[in-house]
Design goal:
Pfam families: HxlR (PF01638). By secondary structure, this protein is mainly alpha-helical. Helix content is 59%, strand content 12%. The protein has a three-stranded antiparallel beta sheet with strand order 1-3-2. 14% of the residues are buried.
Length: 117
Amino acid sequence: MTTDSGMDHNICGMSVAIDVVGGKWRLHLMWVLSDGPRRFSEIRRLLEGVSEKVLTENLRHLETSGVVRREVFPEIPPRVEYSLTPLGAELAEALRPLEEWGDRHRGVLFTNLSAAS
């Protein structure tokens, strides 16, 4: 069944999750934000190599998905912070085993990937 938004509610949960966090930077963004609220410039420093445009696009996608909250503070100059919503915090917890798996198998994976290059 497809809704007015075009989302098929019969699609498997893995496909839905990948739609939210798929791509080069979204998992990294979730991980950075799991430590607490961050400003844009701080996120950009922590994610070496991401352009301002790509970071903005990915933050907007995560915000639209409901896993990231953007808060604008009424200050001069304006201050904006990004943080995980309760839904995002739950997703970050689900990603923790993936990080643990990567830590356990880092050496073998680097060796395999280096040999393939």
